[in-house]
């Protein structure tokens, strides 16, 4: 069976560096950090008191106030991002066959804010006071379900949960749905609202988060020798993926073409990456092969780049395994240096970065790269964006449990 070509025709973004693609991209290219002190709860008792919070999202711009109260924050973000993506794509749902429109969204922890709140209600007031909306607000699949309801999509609808690889897995799975003809259009990406006392406390107990509390904008420093952990963040990014045939028929604007998808498992450890970068390397190789390309053709890699000691070192090793000497010619950057780590939504955000880099011929920097680490010696686009014609770009996402995912986009050339 002939595989359908798949393109990106819409972007919706809710992020710590800005809501909406224009504000998001301008701030990324300018090296603007979205990290600051935690304001969503009293962080005095946790060791990491900083986060990438969303501060410009107004839920009632997208959702009726009464309806919004029936959604956890991560679902509110997802619906808002999806409606922005719908508007950006200029799709007319009234002329679409709704059975050919799908939704695939990823999240790492879903409605953890609702879960915490209702656990407190149970402890303080008893089981009779627990909300009947707790379950439909908390469960991870409700973001995809509510997006389907909001836009009237009746096609394939599913959720992906693979920790920090969730967003990339979602985009890759959506790509394959369209490629094999199971949908014409898929709204895909990820959403997370994990800046809560329980989630932050859990990551602090793991010693995974940066403690650079006195200088938040300098805290996320991927590949820098002085990195001390990632910075937790929140938000949602949704991409509209569409069969090329359908996009051309309606004369849609095309950001980029989706070309390859790779996914592997380290089978090594619940939290630590494979020490030789083997799993991540195979994921990249799989995506490049799926796209029918060679490593020498890749212009840009948006790295997982979390600003943790092991991730940055082993991801660098994995890129060297795949690219060999040609890695010197590849621009590599980690936008987590500005956005922080959106967990299950990170891969979706970084997919949007690929699409915008290809469209605009610019690559955002890795900010806070000040003290080179001998183990991390690639071209990380330090501190300032560069202008570069990007024909092919890939993004890595690596999650707890040993999940590795890679997506590969290319410039649409007809």
Summary keywords:
414 residues; alpha/beta; Peroxisomal Thiolase, Chain A, domain 1; 11-stranded mixed beta sheet; two-stranded antiparallel ribbon; 13 helices; 15 strands; 33% helix; globular; 3-oxoacyl-[acyl-carrier-protein] synthase activity; lipid metabolism; fatty acid biosynthesis; transferase
Low-confidence segments, given as residue ranges, are none
Fraction of residues in β-strands: 15-25%
In CATH, what is the homologous superfamily of the largest domain?
Answer: Thiolase/Chalcone synthase
Span between N and C termini? 21 Å
Oligomer: single chain
CATH class identity of the largest domain:
Alpha Beta
- Helix-residue proportion: 25-40%
> What summary fits the major beta sheet?
11 strands, mixed
Radius of gyration: 20 Å
Instruction: Output the helix-strand order.
Output: EEHEEHHEHHHEHEHEHEHEHEHHEEEE
Protein name: 3-oxoacyl-[acyl-carrier-protein] synthase 2
Pfam families: ketoacyl-synt, Ketoacyl-synt_C
Domain Ketosynthase family 3 (KS3): 3-411
InterPro entries: 3-oxoacyl-ACP_synth-2, Beta-ketoacyl_synthase, Ketoacyl_synth_AS, Ketoacyl_synth_C, Ketoacyl_synth_N, PKS_Beta-ketoAc_synthase_dom, Thiolase-like
């Amino acid at each position: 069976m002939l595989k359908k070509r798949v393109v990106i025709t819409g972007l919706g973004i809710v992020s710590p560096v800005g809501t909406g693609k224009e504000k998001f991209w301008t701030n990324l290219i300018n090296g603007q950090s979205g990290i600051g002190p935690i304001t969503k709860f009293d962080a005095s008792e946790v060791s990491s008191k900083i986060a990438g919070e969303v501060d410009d999202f107004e839920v009632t711009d997208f959702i009726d106030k009464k309806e919004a109260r029936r959604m956890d924050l991560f679902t509110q973000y997802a619906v808002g991002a999806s409606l922005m993506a719908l508007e950006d794509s200029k799709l007319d749902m009234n002329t679409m066959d709704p059975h050919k429109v799908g939704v695939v969204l990823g999240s790492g922890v879903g409605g953890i804010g609702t879960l915490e709140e209702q656990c407190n209600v149970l402890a303080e007031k008893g089981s009779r006071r627990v909300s009947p909306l707790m379950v439909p607000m908390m469960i991870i699949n409700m973001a995809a379900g509510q997006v389907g309801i909001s836009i009237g999509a009746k096609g394939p609808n599913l959720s992906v949960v693979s920790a920090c690889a969730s967003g990339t897995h979602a985009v890759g799975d959506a790509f394959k749905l369209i490629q094999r003809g199971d949908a014409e259009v898929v709204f895909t990406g990820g959403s997370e609202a994990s800046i809560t006392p329980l989630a932050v406390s859990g990551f602090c107990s793991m010693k995974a988060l940066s403690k650079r509390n006195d200088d938040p904008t300098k805290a996320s420093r991927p590949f820098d020798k002085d990195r001390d952990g990632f910075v937790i963040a929140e938000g949602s990014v949704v991409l509209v993926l569409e069969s090329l045939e359908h996009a051309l028929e309606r004369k849609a604007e095309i950001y980029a073409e989706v070309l390859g998808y790779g996914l592997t498992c380290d089978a090594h450890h619940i939290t630590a990456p494979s020490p030789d970068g083997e799993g991540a390397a195979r994921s990249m190789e799989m995506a490049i092969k799926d796209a029918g390309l060679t490593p020498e053709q890749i212009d840009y890699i948006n790295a997982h780049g979390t600003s943790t000691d092991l991730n940055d070192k082993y991801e660098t090793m994995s890129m060297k395994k795949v690219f060999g000497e040609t890695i010197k010619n590849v621009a590599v950057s980690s936008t987590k240096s500005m956005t922080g780590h959106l967990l299950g939504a990170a891969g979706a955000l970084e997919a949007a970065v690929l699409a915008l880099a290809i469209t605009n011929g610019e690559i955002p920097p890795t900010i806070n790269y000040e003290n080179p680490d001998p183990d991390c010696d690639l071209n990380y686009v330090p501190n300032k964006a560069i202008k570069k014609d990007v024909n092919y770009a890939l993004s890595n996402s690596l999650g707890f449990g040993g999940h590795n995912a890679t997506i590969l986009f290319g410039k649409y050339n007809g």
